[in-house]
Amino acid sequence: MSTPTPLTTRRHVQLQAGLVLFGVSLAMIILSGLGNSPWDVLHQGLGRTFGGGTGLWTIIVGALVLAAWVPLRQRPGFGTLANVIVIGVVMDVVLTAFPPATVMASQVALLAGGILLNGVATGLYIGASFGPGPRDGLMTGLAQRGISIRAARTGIEVVVLVGGFFLGGTLGVGTLAYALAIGPLAHHFIPLFTPRALQSPAPAVGTAVASH
Questions:
Q1: Rounded mean pLDDT, 28-40
Q2: CB contact set of 27 (below 8 Å; sequence gap of 6+)
Q3: Does the CA dihedral 117-83-160-188 come out positive or negative?
Q4: What gap in Å lies between CA 187 and CA 183, rounded to an integer?
Q5: Which residues have a Cβ under 8 Å from the Cβ of 14 and sit 6 or more positions away?
Q6: Exposure winner among 19, 62, 81, 199, fewest CB in 10 A?
Q7: Is the pLDDT of residue 201 over 60?
Q8: CA 10 and chain centroid, separation
Q9: Three-state DSSP class for 60?
Q10: What was the pLDDT predicted at 23?
């Protein structure tokens, strides 16, 4: 059994830190009450309709999306499997420990802080390069079947957003703010947290981000 290198150790720590912070950031956005990220509109709606926490449905949906990788011939990495479990568990812990904000100043602070932290967390876990999140892999798998990244991402997020809204998920200004901010944030933080040895001139690192 080979001894882990400092780079490998750093990547594992970075992956787990990124996933934990990603779960915290999504919970902060939900607690703001101003609108969730598109996938969390669906997760929250499922929880309100069928019972169970938003984090639990994050795990369930993540596992179902991962199963959809099979016909697309996508291969999960260690980070993919960790993504399915860690983010949802952390979300439910935070959502159970803290009540939703009721004062506008607190709501705005939670939303802004959550979106910024989400960008940092995205850079950490994707920069660790242990495999994409299950939802990202679904998008890239569809892209490999001839659908453009833009069309695949837009189509998937519209479907989950509309479905989540009709199930009772929170859609609001925070949803729009997240959609507008996460791309630029990821574009900045992914290269920042990607080890130099793993960086390449490949296309835009921010094309498949923040879908957890």
A1: 97
A2: 55, 90, 91, 94, 95, 98, 114
A3: positive
A4: 6
A5: 124, 125, 127, 128, 193
A6: 199
A7: no
A8: 21
A9: helix
A10: 97
Reported as a single tens digit per residue, the pLDDT across 56-81 is: 999 999 999 999 888 877 788 899 99
Alpha-carbon gap, residue 199 to 106, rounded angstroms: 38
Q: Residue 60 half-sphere exposure, CB side, CA atoms within 13 Å?
A: 14
Q: For residue 7, which amino acid is it?
A: L
Residue 134 and residue 188: Cα distance in Å, rounded?
22
- How many degrees, rounded to 5, is the angle at CA 154 between CA 156 and CA 62? 30
**Alpha helices per DSSP H over the chain:** 6-32, 38-50, 54-67, 69-72, 78-97, 104-127, 134-143, 149-166, 173-193
Question: Cβ of 59: how many Cβ atoms within 10 Å?
Answer: 21
- Helices 149-166, 134-143: inter-axial angle, 10-degree rounding: 130
The one-letter amino acid code at 28 reads: M
- Residue 22 to residue 44: CA distance in whole angstroms: 16
Would residue 75 be called left, alpha or beta, if left means φ above 0 and alpha means ψ between -120 and 50 degrees?
beta
Q: Do 87 and 22 meet the contact criterion of CB atoms below 8 Å apart?
A: yes
Place of tokens 């787990």: 16
Q: Mind listing the pLDDT tens digit for each residue in 111-122? A: 999 999 999 999
